[in-house]
């Protein structure tokens, strides 16, 4: 499989020095050789292509060794780059995991605080209704008339608690939905960014291949 297009600065520096030692124009052939290494699938294909380029500058007895040396160096550089990318990715994943856990803790704390506030509101409402009932009962006792208010008050208390509980649940659900939408949008932006980068890399490869054929 062809090597991915990455930052080839370290390898490119070595390649330029090697071309200088062979008295090959680095400005003309450096990028061309780099394109061959990136585009060709197998080492045999790479070697054939490099041989076609360097045979005009290197002795026939030495050109094969030079081609193999360049390919070996390219392979080693790719392995080192892959290991570094894997290490960097692991570090990024660890940081992302830590941030996610911290975010979850913050969300739980906010939900807990709002839940507590909701319960306090229910209790305050219940206390107000209870005070009103006590006043009504005192008036009833003074007048000697008793109304069936206790059952109505119990019904009111239950209704108030249910309404406040539903409102609290709606706020929690809205927050969770917003967080999920934020994560979905973030993932989509990353996908779009990768797709755009992939299109650019493919277009660059086609351009380099066209220049090489000319």
Task: Describe the secondary structure blueprint for this structure.
Layout: H1 9-21, H2 26-39, H3 43-54, H4 60-143, H5 149-213
Helix pairs in contact: 1-2, 2-3, 2-5, 3-4, 4-5
Keywords: Coiled coil
Biased composition (Polar residues): 150-160
Pfam families: PWI_CCDC43 (PF26091)
The average pLDDT is: 79
User: What structural class do you assign from the helix and strand content?
Assistant: mainly alpha
DSSP helix fraction:
over 70%
Q: Detail the poorly predicted runs.
A: 1-6
Query: Gyration radius, to the nearest Å?
Result: 37 Å
Total beta strands: 0
The backbone outline, from C-alpha atoms, is rod-shaped
Largest sheet data: none
Oligomer: single chain
Number of helices: 5
Pattern of helices and strands = HHHHH
Q: N- to C-terminal separation? A: 24 Å
* Strand content bin: under 5%
């Amino acid at each position: 499989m062809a090597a991915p297009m990455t930052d080839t600065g370290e390898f490119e520096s070595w390649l330029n020095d090697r071309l200088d030692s062979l008295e090959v124009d680095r400005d003309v052939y450096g990028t061309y050789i780099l394109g061959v290494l990136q585009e060709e699938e197998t080492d045999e294909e790479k070697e054939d292509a490099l041989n076609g380029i360097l045979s005009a500058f290197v002795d026939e007895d030495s050109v094969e060794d030079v081609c193999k040396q360049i390919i070996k160096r390219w392979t080693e550089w790719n392995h080192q780059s892959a290991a570094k990318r894997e290490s960097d990715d692991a570090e990024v994943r660890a940081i992302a995991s830590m941030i996610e856990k911290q975010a979850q803790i913050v969300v739980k704390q906010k939900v807990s605080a709002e839940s507590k506030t909701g319960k306090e509101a229910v209790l305050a409402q219940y206390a107000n209704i209870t005070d009103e009932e006590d006043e009504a009962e005192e008036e009833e006792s003074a007048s000697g008339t008793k109304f069936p208010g206790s059952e109505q008050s119990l019904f009111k208390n239950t209704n108030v608690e249910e309404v406040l509980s539903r409102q609290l649940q709606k706020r929690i659900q809205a927050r969770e939905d917003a967080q999920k939408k934020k994560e979905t949008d973030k993932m989509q932006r990353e996908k779009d960014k990768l797709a755009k980068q992939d299109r650019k890399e493919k277009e660059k490869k086609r351009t380099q291949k066209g220049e090489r054929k000319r």
